[in-house]
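Example record used in the benchmark description.
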Amino acid sequence: MKYGHFDDEAREYVITEPQTPRPWINYIGRQDYVGMISNTGGGYSFYQDPRYRRLIRYRYNNAPRNVGGRGLYVRDAESGEYFSPTFQPAREPLDDYEARHGLGYTTIRGEKDDVAGEVTYFVPPGEDLEAWRVTVENNSDESRNLQLFSLVEFCLWDAVDDSSNYQRNYNTGEVEVEDSVIYQKTEYRERRNHFAYFACSADIDGFDTQRDAFVGQYNGFDEPAVLEDGEATDSIAHGWSPIGSHQVDVELEPGESEEVVFLLGYHENPQDDKWAEPGVINKEYVEETIEEYLDPAALDESFTELEEFWADQLSALQVETPDPETDRMVNTWNPYQNTVTMNLARSASLYETGLTRGIGFRDSLQDQLAVLHQFPDRARKRILNLAKIQLKDGGAYHQYTPLTGEGNADIGGGFNDDPMWLVMSTAAYVKETGDTSILAEEVVYENEPGTEEPLAEHLQRAVEYVRERRGPHDLPLIGHADWNDCLNLNCFSENPDESFQTAEHDVEEERAESVFIGGQFVYAVEELAELADQTDLLPESAEEYQRYADEMADAVADAGWDGAWFRRAYDHFEDPIGSSENDEGQIFVESNGMCGMAGIGREDGKVQDAMDSVRERLATEHGIVLHQPAFTEYDERYGEITSYPPGYKENGSVFCHTNPWIMITEAKLGNGERAFDYYKRICPAAREDISDVHTTEPYVYAQTIAGPDAPTTGEAKNSWLTGTAAWNYVAITQYILGVRPDHDGLVVDPSIPAEWDEFSVHREFRGATYEITVENPDGVESGVDRVEIDGDTIDSQTIPDLGDGEVHDVRVVMG
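Model output (structure tokens):
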């Protein structure tokens, strides 16, 4: 079943049924101020940090879903009937409904009884506010006396404290109302430097700031007392639960409409004005901004700027293929999701509360891989910021807090795959930009002043961290976990009677090894060897780095090979995981994907054998599952992975993040049919027709899809903020379509379905533009016969770095 459709020309997803299987959301804002908008107007907003600067309250795991936070109501003053044009919170059935999620904005329109309401939510570029442009329209043949009510439910800044410290918060809520502006100044008495505001462009006919007065003592947001009575109470919150609500009365003749603008914004006083008079907010800082953006003309200009921003961002890479679902994902939705994910990592969605995770070291470094061509300067800054939370021993804090930039000491390090992602992302940045100067940038360790070293030294410490921490099979120690945070092979019972301690092994010594990190090390250090050929800024030579990679590849090919696939790991007692020796968890996708991308054992057929095993044992109609067979009982030897029911999350689901590693490996092997087949299995646009099964948004990737062992096979969870987005973009653009940056230029090496006769790629690269047409006259899956640039044949599959600001026509003939 479908709940909407793609409007490719407008670059929008149009939802025509408000009761989608899950709230289908969009993001507004891309810098400091960020908001989420669902297809029924729900969601929340924050400034910089989703925990400590939360403006709007949001209830996770609530029934009904996605209510509170934001709201709009239109009421007929004569009949007393009311509805929400966004469907929620009133939940009155609508005669007509449409929600359009676009790039950085959402427009929702609802009509009932010949009255229509429409609202567009967006953040004006560079501003710390969101605008709601609301239009109320009378489509009847008689005049109508209507009332428009707005609603925001304020969160009292620290979202954890807001949901737990009621004995304090019920006493601290403070607001102030001046003209049509409601100021939320809770905490201002204490901090005296920040506040929120909710402004209205119309002369208001009433307001409310106390939730109990607006909703009623025992009513809900679907039938608030103010809407039942038809009149705001002009309540002023003194503690309890502050809100912001405006009442605007509108009299409309037949066919007439009226626009009302609401602004929800944040302001932080300059540091030198921090010690303002207690409880007295400095409105002069925001008065000019409020006046400017309550003017529709200013909003028109800002919205045009927003559209131009996204047109520019997406123009760097556009494709035209025989597959329309590929085109809409590559040209619009995948890079859009990549940008959101790069901004937020895994911190704030309808599945990530923004309360604990912060910005992940591993997560964010992978996110950079897909946005380097869009905004290399921002990616460069993010890489350097992440290097600041690298530990002195070469490891890394697993997460950092975006507001402070400090590593999360509660979680710390010990995720032994983390260091290599810094190497991989830095190498990818240099390939895209040619900018080796990033290696000379001085960066501290652990955010500690006085510890500065060039980024090149940080990469060297990352390499040494893995090389110095190897186990009995000469494979890297897994630490707390590697990519799979739930595979905890150094977990042991505290009860001696239940422990696995033996005379031969001391359980307090971490001995578990990761084949995955071994493959990752080979992949990353070979990238470092290539980089060493380009610059003398690295501490060691290309030959030395290649020696390190070869040593690790030998160890992986020896101890990591199970006969038909790569093993996953060894536990503390040197027993293999992901082996035919195991009853459960015999084969894992992660190690096979990473070792496959690294090409370990390719010459003697190991990689192809591993891919055949993955296809036979892990591939399902909904994607490639993490492992099989799934674990059926909790087993402390393997840790949290076995705490999930079979088929869900880390225990045998389609963990979509890993699927592109198999796509890339198959493409490198020249198996274009297989690579593209896997791409389509988890492609959101290709799953639109089964939205009632898939449940999450058909325009963005989800983290997981329930595997065949689950009762809800095919159901997705955790959409939007996932490394799936970046890796799928890399897989389809760089390895299936095959246009990827390298140190000397753009490599063209497609691996596609044989029935594709032609496709084209528009690619901007280092100051030049390349219009690439790939022809496939012989119906092959891979292989390039010749490459022409501006009519001249070159003796290479690498388009040279021309960098001349010109447009160049490139013709590639496969064969």
